[in-house]
Amino acid sequence: MNLVERGEELSIMEHMLGSSAGGHGGVVLVSGAVASGKTALLRAFETRVNASGTLHLQATASDAESDLPLGVMGQLLLGADLPAADARRAARLVELIAGSAQSRRAAGELPAVAMNEIPELCGILLEKARERPLVLSIDDAHHADEHSLECLLYLARRLAVSRILVVLGENSGFLAGHARLRVDLLRLPGCRNIRLGPLQRSGVAEMISVFGEPGWRTRKLVSEIHHMGGGSPLLTRALIEDHRAAGAGTTPSAGLVPGESFVRAVATCLYRSDLATRRTAWALAVAGPDMSLAELVEVLGASRESLLRSLRALNEAGLLDAGWFRHDAGRAAVLRSLEPADRARVEARCAQVLHEHGAAAAAVVRHLIAAETADAPWARRTLIEAAERALADDEVDLALTCLRIARDSGTDPHQALEIRAALTRAGWRVNPAGVAQHLPELTAAALDGRLGARHADELVGHLLWFGRAERALDVLRAVERPDPARQGRPGPGARYRHDCPRRWMTYAYPGLPASARACLGRSPEHTTAQDTSPQHAALARSPHQRAATLVKALLDGPGDDVVVRAEQILQSTRLDDGTLTPLLVALNSLVLADRPATAAFWCETLLKEAVERRAPMWQALLAAAKGRIELRTGALVAAQESARAALALVPADGWGVAVASPVATAVSTGTVMGRLDEAAAHLGVPVPDAAFQTADGLLYLRARGHYYLAAGRPYAALDDFLTVGDLMRRWDFDLPALVPWRTDAAEAHLSLGDRDRARALAEEQLALSDRGNGCARAVSLRVLAGTLAAAHRPPLLGEAIEILRDRGHRLELVRALDESARTQRELGKVGQARALARKAQRLAGECGVPVPSMPSAADAGSPHPAEQPWSSGNRRHPDELSNAELRVATLAVRGHTNRQIADKLCITISTVEQHLTRAYRKLAVQRRADLAAKLSPLAGPGEDREGAATHDACDRLHVG
User: Which residues have CB under 8 Å from 691's CB, separation 6+?
Assistant: First the structure.
């Protein structure tokens, strides 16, 4: 057997063995902390005893048998190999003493020792020692029964002239329940007390050499194991085993990571200690390092002296160092040894003690969470306060955990409402879909007058988010009802307190019915003499009020005043749940005021903060705003990624009516980039009907209209564009900077060949946007130019290009440059056409738009794409398009409307649109004007094009 740093102790015991064989018996008391190597030392000594021919009688005491009279003596006598007569006499004496003790205990008296029988019982061992030297070895003597200890004391007093050596192993950490035994033994001249201390570094290194692998005995590993194991042989051996299990044999430089062997060793230490020490270890592990000694005494319900003794025992066992765990793994192992129900009780007790001592809510709530219960009223209040603090510190998961425990533990209806409102506020920051379940109960409470003003305002916002505007109005009316306790008069500032959500609804939901909008009251710009109260002054400074005023300024016409107001909001408002909407309004206002660079800077700043503060909903909304800005500036790939990120951060069902925003961006980018399948997939995302009462719904309809237009469905596109116009005019929300629906509809009319109607719409929008030189004006100029003869287009296109270049609208600039190149080509100015086309190609490549084709020399002077001479090169087989698709595409190239094509081919308009959609997809084009560059006839350049314009000739058209 390998003993480490125990050679001196073993030598002492061997010396005393020799003395006892010579007639001078004695007692060896081996004491030490739990798992300090006492048993190993006794086993090693047993090997020496057996080798010397000495009779060795061994017993192991147990806590389970500590009340069994003569339990230890019975074990010793069992191995004494007594003659039959002596064995019967010993059995009779043991039975007599045990029976006497049990009868006295049953009578309610203290157990008395049968002094007449003990000398006779011990005499059997004394007689045996005359035959040969005798060693009595008792391990865990601290668990020995009282009668056996009396026998040992009787023998000890007679050892000086006998050949008996008594060896006792005891845990020094146990309470001194047998103080008399220790005192009586240690005063005897033949008694030696051997105390086993922790291993030194050299001992740890020796154990690594014995139980480890070659090359492990490094200074770093020795230091780590010595520190973590505290010199305990049991813990040291466990750490070496875990190091081997972690693969250190193949990777010698691997760090020390405590594992399952260490966990089992810690549990062994605890369950071989006394109950007080175990409870102290558990309480300490649960309480944490910040709990004071006085608080820990209260948690345990023990005396200070008992706590100090237990802490001393745990230090000696190698688990603690100066009253705290040597390593987090030790604390974790102690907690694993604690049953869940017991841990919950200790956690609850720690929370109560900390609360009574005035500790911070954050310290108390950690234990309440671990206990998973909060039955006391103070505990629920603490959880609610901690949740508020956690939410302010952006620890949303902690806030939700606190609130859920408080909800599951409470019975007070008023407090339950407060908790449900707080759960809604915290959950919205992660995913609003999870808070929808709370809205019906909160709404009912608000309508009954049981919900506070703050929670009512928050409820209005959540109801609006999910499109329940009418219900939100009901809540506002209910919370503004006069209070009966004030004789029918509303409280001071009651009306002003709810003016922010009222006035904000006017602009967040412009599509509300007229009756509902009338209930919202006057606009924020109308101020009376009564509006000079402190409450109204505070309201005027609120971010929501300033945002509402900003939207009103936008409707009056975006200008420098809008930019100033927006930047004031962005500079002076901190991002949180209550200010996110005004900040988004300010960002969108900068976009509509043609300040995309400024808007991009602020959006990036806010998005970075939202990421740092771990708020998925904030990140999603700001990513959606970022996508809209990037779409405006032509950064299509980035816009597409932003829209995807927004929908990935929060699923579509959590977006409420706002889902129209990221979906609109995703559809628009897919359409412009020619990825119609992707755009169609995004159109499959459900959008609530209530979204079409908001500005985001207008953006969605516009995006869908452009998808229809690119897919060859101009009638469906026109219907969406005109619907947008109808809604915006009905709402008094006609803002070309938001949705230029007139030019959108004009492009649809151009696709259908109705130039007159397209020109009228473009001129109408140009008149509306004439007050500023923004993007809406540039788009109006470009579309208007498309309705005019080539000679009249250059001035309009030149102005549009100048505006778009100045404002940074690259996507619209590509379109304007391409249109200008086509115009110069038709005017016969080939050089200018080529220069403009190259600029358009370069810019289109930067934006991610399919690059427009460069005009060839033969294109000069062509009056219309359908009448351009075809290139005879790069011809491919016509099987890319079906005959039906070729016929429809050819007629479309020649300028026929869908209705004319349907009449000519005797098919329905829907069939025409389907053929065109498939042709666009196969030829990778987005509009009719691009078809001409893709289709060419088999006829050579010298053949008569008009003469070949038969159905057969159309069938011979193929992809070029």
Answer: 467, 657, 658, 659, 660, 697, 700
